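User: Design a sequence. Structure:
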């Protein structure tokens, strides 16, 4: 990671300084400078990487499958969705009542009502879902980065990025962000950990370029400093046009990443469309329960998803957005007081994201996935909540050029277990990787480890989405 350190005095309306923004997601490998690494990655992933991207909205804590996409109003009252259902654009299909805007977009979605992995522990389930159960244990974003390259060869932006609430601005730094649960790299090197702009880590601290901000205008001095940093002269013959990549490296630092993370550039009307600030935690609620509930506020979610769209436009290919608070036992949030806030925020932000993609002609390129570590118990407990349940889990897809406007699988009469067409985590992995990669070409590609190729090749996509 290259970081340019300035005085930090100039700040955006989001509370971030230029120092926060002037970062380039890349690695120093074998003595490569930024410019030479960009050149190497431009050659590395040719042929089998499709012009597609994935955004996963990970609802942390375990979202209730019943109050989201499977309300099961034919079940006994203690099982059915607590707040009822809302009709969708698909005949005979309903969502939970707090998702009316997503219900109006159901013809652009594929909802899975039979996703099961059977794990009921937060950490293990979260890592399993994000890895798609693959044998390396690495999350899907890291798997992709291992295959396609750590950074975009076009812009130098990290190919795998995670956006927790603090990434949306300093004012959100106290909000819940269980990033470690969705970024485990398993047997892969830590260098493939998704870039987290809010907390740094190995990829951020790997390379730091210290140069006064007032010298940024001196392009020659900057390029000289970049190329003198861990550069080996004998790589020049490999580059094939070093000047092009030196210019690209400079443009990346001064433009690409800083611009991608700066949502203040957006139309105020669009910012309002994404805005989830109205779903803040009422003081009466956290005083009644516990102050830790404040960390579960979804007020940053809209900005996170807007930032995800900007990252995709800057050629990032795999973005994970985290949203906390879904552990709705009733001791913190229950379904009774949690769904009106968290469900409402997801409905507003996710529908804005899908409509924004459509308006920009990106719906076919971007696969949007909504999931979490597990579902919730079918029977409502005495605290107005539901407990851990790995036998049915929340899962929905949108876009990516896949067949939408369908419900895949079904649950039994109490929404306890799948009643047909069981979907597994490897099916999720297969669907996502098939979208991002040409697996036929990947199998014969050179330079990709056999265990990575095998992990992906063995994952069968969801048949209804192929």
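Assistant: Done.
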């Amino acid at each position: 990671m290259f970081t340019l350190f300035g005085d930090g005095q100039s700040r955006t309306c989001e509370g971030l300084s230029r120092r926060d923004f002037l970062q380039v997601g890349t690695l120093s490998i074998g003595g490569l400078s930024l410019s030479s690494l960009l050149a190497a990655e431009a050659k590395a992933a040719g042929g089998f990487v499709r012009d597609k991207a994935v955004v996963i909205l990970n609802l942390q804590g375990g979202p209730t499958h019943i109050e989201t996409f499977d309300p099961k109003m034919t079940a006994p009252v203690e099982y059915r969705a607590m707040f009822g259902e809302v009709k969708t654009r698909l005949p005979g299909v309903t969502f939970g009542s707090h998702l009316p805007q997503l219900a109006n977009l159901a013809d652009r979605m594929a909802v899975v009502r039979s996703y099961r992995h059977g794990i009921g522990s937060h950490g293990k389930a979260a890592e399993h879902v994000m890895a798609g159960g693959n044998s390396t244990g690495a999350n899907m974003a890291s798997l992709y980065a291992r295959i396609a390259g750590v950074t975009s060869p076009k812009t130098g932006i990290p190919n795998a990025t995670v956006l927790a609430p603090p990434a949306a601005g300093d004012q959100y730094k106290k909000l819940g962000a269980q990033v470690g649960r969705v970024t485990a790299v398993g047997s892969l090197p830590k260098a493939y950990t998704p870039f987290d702009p809010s907390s740094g880590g190995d990829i951020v601290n790997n390379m730091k370029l210290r140069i006064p901000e007032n010298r940024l205008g001196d392009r020659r001095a900057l390029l000289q400093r970049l190329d003198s940093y861990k550069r080996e002269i004998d790589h020049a013959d490999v580059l094939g046009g070093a000047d092009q990549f030196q210019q690209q490296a400079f443009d990346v630092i001064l433009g690409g990443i800083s611009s991608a993370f700066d949502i203040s550039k957006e139309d105020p009307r669009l910012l309002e469309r994404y805005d989830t600030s109205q779903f803040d935690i009422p003081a009466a609620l956290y005083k009644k329960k516990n102050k830790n509930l404040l960390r579960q506020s979804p007020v940053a979610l809209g900005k996170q998803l807007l930032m995800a769209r900007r990252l995709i436009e800057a050629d990032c290919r795999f973005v994970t957005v985290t949203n906390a608070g879904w552990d709705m036992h009733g001791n913190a949030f229950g379904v009774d007081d949690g769904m009106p806030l968290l469900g409402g925020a997801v409905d507003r932000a996710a529908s804005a994201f899908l409509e924004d993609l459509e308006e920009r002609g990106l719906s076919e390129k971007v696969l949007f996935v909504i999931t979490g570590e597990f579902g919730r118990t079918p029977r409502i407990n005495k605290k107005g909540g539901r407990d851990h349940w790995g036998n049915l889990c929340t899962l929905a897809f949108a876009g990516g050029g896949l067949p939408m406007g369908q419900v895949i699988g079904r649950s039994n009469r109490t929404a306890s277990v799948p009643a047909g067409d069981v979907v597994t985590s490897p099916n999720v992995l297969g669907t996502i990787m098939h979208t991002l990669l040409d697996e036929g070409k990947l199998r014969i590609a050179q330079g990709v480890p056999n265990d990575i190729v095998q992990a992906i090749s063995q994952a069968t996509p969801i048949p209804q989405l192929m």
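The chain has one domain: 48-201+267-465. Residues 1-32, 200-217, 225-245 have pLDDT under 50 and may be disordered.
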